[in-house]
Amino acid sequence: MARFTRTEDPLTDQRAIFDEMTDRSREVFRRVVEGYLETGAPVGSRSLTRTMSEKVSAATVRNVMQDLEYLGLLGSPHVSAGRVPTQLGLRMFVDGLLEVGDLSGEDRARIDETLTSNSDDVPALLDRVGSALSGMTLGASLVLAPKHEAPVKHIEFVSLAPDRALVVLVFADGHVENRVFTPPPGQTPSSMREAANFVNALAQGRTLAELGTAMQREIANRRREIDTLAADLVESGLAIWENKGESTERLIVRGRGNLLDESGEPGDLERIRELFDDLERKRDIAEFLELAEEGEGVRIFIGSENKLFSLSGSSLVVSPYMNADRKIIGAVGVIGPTRLNYGRIVPIVDYTAQLVGRIIADRA
User: Residue ranges per domain, the chain?
Assistant: First the structure.
């Protein structure tokens, strides 16, 4: 069985609501949610009467559905339509009624095939992971690559334009990274040099995380000794390399077309555009990793619970992966409409995260 970390809704006592429901109302609720997840369409009372374990009339089912709507678990998109689960309803279904099985042999073989390679190129591996997840789940995949942990050898700041600068980072193992960022206004060639000299004096033998801590401490102690512009530049450049910037973690997104193909309504298309706007402009993408750090295993975020995106009509299924020291270094996930097939996607994401962690640990 997949490891699954349940997410509590702090605003609602789900257990009290669940205890208030009868066996019949629980069955109606479960069948409405399962029908919605399968078809994406509202579920009507007449169709439910054909699948209920007891013989009941459509009027009885309608009364039960009205009670569930009063509890906030179901909603009606149109006056004469059937019911669909609300965000609270989906949350309670995921936390209390979702049956997560084992990974199918076909899915396991496809993941294994994707990750089987003798290459040490981790970015290429994660690209393949993203493509495989989006293809298997018909959602968009998100992969957060591990940070580079080698000691820093040299840092250089290069002005590209009044509002653009390049930071060149050379690691002791020969790895080089270049990232463009927005520096504080009013930079001069001398402040650029002073900032680089200040950083390099502290960089030797330190990883980025260690360097960041040392730099913040030194800036606090020596702010009067260094030019204000240089201090601001150091802090701006530093933010690029810490957890608050894009270049520390590489976010790989695959499967935009899957979400577009799934949607036929203009409103849905607009929400999907908002999602990808969030992805493209989001600077604090390390928040994606923080979503997964509160517990091992897969976590599910539904609608507005997903604090990474402003898109309310989406769900995120995410799991961290770890290195040989059991330290979380990245994450993999799938994002899609709230009617994702959670029972199938949870074990796929869980197995992929475990496998990626083992492979990266073996190549370290």
Answer: 14-97, 105-146+250-363, 152-241
